[in-house]
Design brief:
The chain is of the alpha+beta class. Helix content is 16%, strand content 21%. The chain contains 2 helices and 2 strands; from the N terminus they run E-E-H-H. The protein has a two-stranded antiparallel sheet. The longest helix has 5 residues. It starts with a strand and ends with a helix.
Length: 57
């Protein structure tokens, strides 16, 4: 779809993520080629211990 960009990844440690953007690749836009390197720097120190589904869905 014009104007959207989606990036899906699954890391070797089993962690997976999906990034969804509503923006075309234009001058001054996000550097989509750098997303992978940036996301590989992300760490998760803890996960919620309660079910948050009802708050968001």
């Amino acid at each position: 779809m014009s104007g959207t960009f989606t990036y899906l990844a699954r890391l070797r440690n089993g962690f997976g993520y999906a990034l969804l953007f509503n923006q075309r690749k234009e001058s001054g836009a996000l550097d989509f080629d750098g997303i992978d390197a940036d996301m590989n720097k992300v760490t998760v120190s803890s996960w919620p211990t309660t079910d948050l589904t009802s708050q968001y869905f």
